């Protein structure tokens, strides 16, 4: 893991390259995704089942593509009691957090007596993608389905690849706990297309959320506009600001927690102490040797891992704002003193005990977060993503008379005569 001593003025040059170039995938991959999506759009189940047999070695038909109640019950019976209990604990906390975050309808009367405001209306149908390749993530089920259901979404459809035909037991248990409406044994770009356009077996949805590989990500990008999506997600990231007040081993473990996700993960430490930087690197190397996913983590640490040594904590905050990380840990003595300066981050963890792993599982906020620097303009997944807020406008005679000339003048200035006419007609018959 590289240690870089960062001087003032060298910020942009020094952080350049910490992310792999993932925003411009190979044209062949984009072309393959477009072909898959269009084939499913045009041919429905026939294409969906063909791709599932090709990629997942699973033969599906209309009668078995949907996970049955019997299959769900059987899968749940395979989940250890302690894991079921932990999933319930996490679900309760996620639900409680998002209940508190729900916005409210509002209306007010302006000085002319006009009523203005907004309504709250949930999206009707949401599709959730849950990976099933290198690893299965029951936590992602909770972090996506529960905010949708708290928002009032009527129908939550889950798709997940099931190589060999066996649904992942923990994913099934999480879906049952969350209250998912239906589950389908399909994955990849073809599953995204099925959700976006609907097939004979898979219902069309209004929004698709959840992480996936590059094929899933590009498919979501392709269907955006036909449906809404949560975000174009990239590899996981963490940036830790540390002043040496907590054990180096803690920080090293947090960096590895991101590095083990995949080879493109971004683990970064910013510290004010060179000795602490070296201590963290030493701990990381030792811990990496014993890590089960060490081959994956080692690639991420080598290629994207950085330890920046800066002069002050204010400089560390500047680095964090420039990176705009998915996860930002403030492992310093007084983390709240840094908070006002933080401009860009997906989730901020205050204090050395607030490790990012808590955010992944039980804290409450969704772990679906902006990556790749998009925290500069986007937010974590929440109930807001599943709500629409139509405006309500009601004009009184006083309000109409007071503002009609202004409206007509503005309409004429834009060359929109009929707009002005729609007001003038009412004035003339006033």
How would you sum up this structure, described in words?
The chain is an alpha/beta fold. It has 3 domains: 2-16 and 234-363, Rossmann fold (3-Layer(aba) Sandwich); 27-229, Nitrogenase molybdenum iron protein domain (Rossmann fold, 3-Layer(aba) Sandwich); 395-428, no CATH class. Helix content is 45%, strand content 15%. The chain has 16 helices and 16 strands. The protein has helices at 11-15, 27-43, 45-56, 69-77, 81-101, 138-151, 169-178, 188-197, 214-223, 248-259, 274-290, 294-304, 313-323, 356-361, 397-413, 417-428; strands spanning 2-5, 106-109, 115-118, 121-122, 125-129, 155-159, 182-184, 207-209, 228-229, 237-242, 266-271, 306-309, 327-331, 347-350, 387-388, 391-394. The chain has a 6-stranded parallel β-sheet, sandwiched between helices. α7 links the parallel β6 (155-159) and β7. α4 (69-77) crosses α7 (169-178), α5 (81-101) packs parallel to α6 and α10 (248-259) crosses α11. The N and C termini lie far apart (76 Å). 43% of the residues are buried. The model has no long low-confidence stretch (mean pLDDT 93).
Keywords:
430 residues; alpha/beta; Rossmann fold; 3 domains; globular
Task: Give the SSE map.
Layout: E1 2-5, H1 11-15, H2 27-43, H3 45-56, H4 69-77, H5 81-101, E2 106-109, E3 115-118, E4 121-122, E5 125-129, H6 138-151, E6 155-159, H7 169-178, E7 182-184, H8 188-197, E8 207-209, H9 214-223, E9 228-229, E10 237-242, H10 248-259, E11 266-271, H11 274-290, H12 294-304, E12 306-309, H13 313-323, E13 327-331, E14 347-350, H14 356-361, E15 387-388, E16 391-394, H15 397-413, H16 417-428
Parallel strand pairs: 1-12, 5-6, 5-8, 6-7, 8-9, 10-11, 10-13, 11-12, 13-14
Antiparallel strand pairs: 2-3, 3-16, 4-15
